[in-house]
Specification:
Six copies of one chain form a homohexamer.
Chain A: E1 42-46, H1 62-70, E2 90-95, H2 103-120, E3 123-127, H3 134-141, E4 147-152, H4 173-179, E5 183-193, H5 201-209, E6 212-215, H6 216-222, H7 224-235, E7 240-245, H8 267-275, E8 282-288, H9 299-316
Parallel strand pairs in A: 1-2, 1-3, 3-8, 4-5, 4-7, 5-6, 7-8
Helix pairs in contact in A: 1-9, 2-3, 3-4, 8-9
Chain lengths: 318, 318, 318, 318, 318, 318
């Protein structure tokens, strides 16, 4: 497997990393009408949208800050030695333009964009956006049949509704996804769940449909390698989606998010869990809830793109 | 005119200003079911809502930060000597709880709350929230007949729609208010308008209905006193609403807002223009678009509550 | 054991967490003259006072920021499932008003306030304030007989005096408390001590009176569970006070404090050590040295209230 | 005069302003090998370079932050009504890649890039970079004959050398430019000079070659309109370069710069002086010394791009 | 008048301004036991003390940050051309060590230090500290006979007491100074007073003893030159102290202070009013209330030392 | 071994830690012409220089911020009980003045300064500066014969060149040092290497000359004690240099650096690895790449000086 040099990122040895228009990982930027769009194999897509946020907004600014931080990423995985950009054609496909004042309209736009990718055979690596982003993406990716999911997060995002019946928020996407048949709950595992809770409604639902929740105290007690072995077993070799909420990571390492929960994994494990995904059948992945207004130093975005690079490596590993 | 001591704020000579649960200006906090609710004459209300924001969100956090900063406000106007809390019964009436993921539901909730105030004869001084806040407030205050408005802002907020037809955003409230008969456009004046523009659609509408726009270059050329004399003449002695967008003020003085425009008035004039409102027939006032996530030092909130104190003085002056 | 719904916090499902006047954990705010004051079982009290600080001041702003952050806390402990607000009547009792320019006057005021709580049978959970706060609190709680103490900190706060004989500073409270017979030194354990030292005067004193110090290198070598087992054994089933200085936690997780010491526990252990207190006879607890001016992002306050919630759970566990 | 729609920026009514890969003013990004490069009339170019900085570095990050902030700029000048993008073909030509560790190599690279523009007939609007940036740019623009210059700054940048003979720093570019025959000193005016001084060496040089310096106290005493009338007279109708150091503006409005000097113009005048350039024969312009590491809130970059928009308007006015 | 080169500051042309141990204005640092202490004519002294602060503390960190910022100051006044360090022997005399937990002890220490200066004939230029600093300084300087004072501030600091009788706070120093016969109230003028007020107690006292207050609205209406002419007339040619509270300046220019009041002078006037002091008989001067914890960017300290440089120029002008 | 009290630091019990001109660890400041210069045994030296930085500059501000933070350091090692200042004469020797605009000139100046130290028998503990700083220092220290090195870092800094042949950058110092015979590669160990990579050129070079690289995944797998035992064995008892790049530590603990790499050690291990150096033959040590502009809260500088104190302890241990 070998990629077209057209799709290789610019090296920091040639152009300093602070220079240049910031695309994801210094890849070429291709809009859907670009003549080489069809040659893309993995598309990095921004979804600057946070209208589903019930608490502190900000992830609409995520894609831009993630692009900025991503110019710090180099070509090779320091631990595995993998050079993903030389394996498959990667490109920055730009942002899906949401309608910040209309949730339904935004979801329609997002799903439409991802259906284009599905048609072209492009696998998406998404930079959100709040966690509601995953729902319209899954509507495109799982239209044929439900997918499995490995979900890193401190929250289940499985609630039924908020504020007296509001169905579409960043706390409900996977409840909807299960209801809509986009996720096969028996092939879904949620890792890192923690924090104070409203009630057990989300966990009761998980249990009722067969979603496996691994709370943080179990995660730490078993160690990440053991947990990830179970996760791989749960999703098996069928098509699987990876959803990574930055608040999975402890807020000392990733402060820039709207609903942080203390007591999470450190940055070494933030990457290590993703390396354990190598070899899975990944149809798409997302990094969500990076919120620049709460990320005073840019540390969260940098951690976010470091995770995205590992996700990319997982997507191109055999 | 003399107020009930029950409604007097706590003095910083007795309790240090950094101490205590932060209510607006250290006033008593009364929910609508409080036995003394009916005795309130001016109610300070928070509307923590920014779902109409087309650009950078954050004003949902405004009321809390404004309350925090407001404990720096003392009892007496330094220039006029007025002691507003001794004139009328003022209270913090808490926040209207919005639905961050549903604009229509939020507007319904806000209008309902303000209709209660109208019924009780309480005049509201509102802390937003983005500028769409003014629309559901006006729906309660102007239900009987259209009101006039003096509007401090760098934007007209008179656009028809955004993103292909979305009618309810923070860029459209006064277009809707005119259409709904809540504002008498001939008695509306907008002061401080500036910045780059999309097009002339908003200004053409203003002209077509008789709204008077005073752009910043005219404002500086004439001086604030002359401008305010014209503004007073435009609204006359009939019921008038005051809407104060913090981005009226230059962002060096008020950085914490979502759509700043450089080249505005300084903080001395930010207060001085409000003092010129004394004697008008003010049915309500608001301070909107204070956005704490973009207000690293709290300076904007402090300026905002200083303006709110002047608005309060204007509302109680004869 | 079941509480009165009057004392239940507002849910974030009903009112968004950024909305409302911020009381501790969204509990009702009751001043001592409130008719239901006598029904309170655990009172959350702020002591906005830092006049005893020898280094960088700021904890006088602690209670306000802790209240603000505390609206992120939900009703249920994510790990134990405990719902403390449904077990006992909890309330925000406001702040004790200190005299920032007079240490003795402030201590008198604080002790007087806590004596009222003792009389009413209200157990206090205090938000400081610098560590000198614990002394006037203990003067009220331990008037009858000395109490034991589990003390989380990076410093012993056992020095004799500063600056040529000054007895009352945040580095001396527990030296005074032992001298005044408020603490039974044989039932005192200090956990997490670290950092560079002036000399051994404090440790020599501890040894001479029987206070057990567990320095950080021992803490990490043994693990927190083992350390906490010893701590429980030291205080036994007699009345015990819990004092938690936020600088116990590593400053990457809790930067907002005046005298940070690197090399401390992470946020998972910051909570875990408190969960090990369940079942002790806790007469009161405090969270001190949270200093908002050095807490640029609010992370420290959020960690602080998360610990306070665990302390509350420990206080209501059987 | 009418431009090709290919070169029009994306509207915030269509794509929210926080969305999309950030190019200057949302213009198309064209590298020199782009087929439409030759159609560009005004090129916005970044020079991310600060190796000439003698004090606090940072302007190498300027172009990226200026691009980010520039997505807030709309299509029309609010005061003059001019729509520059509809007049001439504008594009983002990317960054010139400097060599951060070699000043001479960087200057060679920069001059080479701008010579390409001169050959293509593209007028440059540069985003620096520290003030040494202007020298290699002038080497390309003034190769045929010396140009005049209107220079907004708090410093003259006319020193002979630093640190015992170092000739190329951000404090010496215009001394070199005069020596190299790139500037006609009789047609050079420097406006806003202020701050404490090392000595009079720079001013003596200015006097000796006929450069006109207008210090800040004269600027304020006469008013900006009168000063700009003199400036226009000095440069006349011959080719003129505009160099705008962001530290011309008072640091309350533009804190993000390496050598701020208090007591400067406010943001209204920061724009107004540029509007007075309309009609001049402008061969190129730059905005330098924007230093994001010292621009905690992004305010300086936003002011910087607002000035760049005015510079663009001046460049396309008749 | 010509100074000893031993007392000249290091030039930024020789040692970059960011280098070196930061003394005030890069002057030599001399402790009282230094052999050349007696040769000093003007001593720059830090008083890192804020125990008198009733609101937000922090000025104890002022001297250090002012020293840091002061390395940006060069040798020559940009407007007058004066080179103060070549006129008189200036030195950094270090900090007076306060006792942060004992106000009376601290005042004793400060007065003792300044009595040493008086004995040696050294005129002090003080960097505070909160405004209570001025009292122990005046006790040394005015022991022989009362002095006059020009006082730049937004507050009068003339209150009788706080918190039920506390006499020594940063809101009371000049009340005490008048009572103690240190100030001749007929030769005292306070400029820039503004903000909301507790009551009129301070102003009534001023009137009763003949202190002239020039509130900010009068200041702006008359212009600074006219106001300063009156100020010079009030103090005449007798010994005069200059006290400059940084909150005189608008908080957009000087945010780093504990009790900001919006609506003040800009940075140009912040310096200009000091230049008007040339020729007065200045026995000492202070810059107080610079509070680094509230000065996120260092802008306030930089403005503060810029004012200190102008104060120094005023002290050495004939 | 016992030191002269002249070289003891000022205690925080006598002078509060926020007071005084900030020298390294409150030691006396001695320039080379000071009469007691020759009595110094360990000299703390600042090298405020970052011209070799290929990415984000800032370490030129390191020494000043490290001095400021160092006043928090007390006299005694909390874990070992060692009191280094009582063992050997330590002093702050000031900063080496670099030429920010000339790399070769700066290296010459630095080497000349350190040759003076070598001549006087003073061992240096350096505060950088970017990592190129180590090269001119080693040129002085290793002139006689190559030294060994224990190098804590996330990068090898062993690249051949950048930007088409530039040899002297912060990514190349140890390549040059090996080439110049300053380091004995067989006695060099690099610990903590991680992050994405350009290519394997640096690692291939290391292998070819016998440098031992311990990447972070090996470091965590083995534990720090085991790793450090190997490191000690590699350097043995011959002269050894210690180079500590702050980016060895995870950026959650040390954000203020130009090229952070996530997934590193925490602050406890940051110190613990240095304690393992006790007894080695240390000829000098450095702490580099602390970059204040990216260290919003000062946390990095505080960690940096805490490591410097441990380095000092290692240098004086037997």
């Amino acid at each position: 497997m070998s990629s077209d040099p057209y799709f290789h990122p610019v090296s920091g040895f040639d152009l300093p990393r602070f220079a240049g228009v910031p695309t994801f990982m210094r890849l070429p930027h291709l809009a859907p009408d670009h003549p080489r769009f069809g040659d893309v194999q993995i598309g990095l897509v921004g979804v600057p949208w946070d209208s589903g946020t019930t608490n502190r907004p900000g992830p609409r600014h995520g894609p831009r800050q993630l692009r900025d931080a991503s110019t710090m990423i180099r070509a090779q995985n320091g631990i595995t030695g993998l050079r993903p950009f030389e394996r498959v054609n990667c490109a920055d496909l730009g942002d899906v333009g949401p309608n910040p004042a209309d949730i339904q309209d935004s979801m329609t736009r997002i799903t439409a964009f991802y259906e284009q990718l599905v048609q072209e055979g492009i696998r998406p690596l998404t930079a959100g956006g709040d966690h509601l982003t995953s729902l319209p993406v899954l509507r495109a990716l799982a239209r044929q049949r439900p997918v499995g999911m490995i979900h890193f997060d401190s929250h289940t995002d499985l609630f039924h509704s908020y504020f007296g019946g509001t169905l579409y928020t960043h706390g409900t996407p996977f409840r909807r996804a299960v209801e809509e048949g986009l996720l096969d709950p028996k092939r879904v595992v949620q890792i890192g769940i923690r924090g104070t809770a409203y009630d057990m409604e989300d966990r009761d639902f998980a249990k009722s449909v067969g979603i496996r929740i691994i709370p943080i105290e179990e995660y730490f007690a078993r160690g990440y390698a053991d947990v990830m072995a179970e996760a791989r077993a749960i999703v098996g070799s069928d098509p699987t989606y990876i959803s990574y909420d930055i608040d999975f990571v402890d807020p000392a390492f990733a402060p820039g998010t709207g609903t942080p929960e203390i007591g999470g994994p450190n940055s070494f494990e933030a990457l290590a869990v993703v390396r354990e995904l190598a070899g899975l059948n990944i149809v798409g992945a997302d990094m969500v809830e990076v919120s620049p207004p709460f990320d005073a130093t840019g540390a969260t975005a940098y951690l976010g793109v470091s995770v995205m690079f590992e996700l990319l490596c997982a997507m191109v590993s055999d």
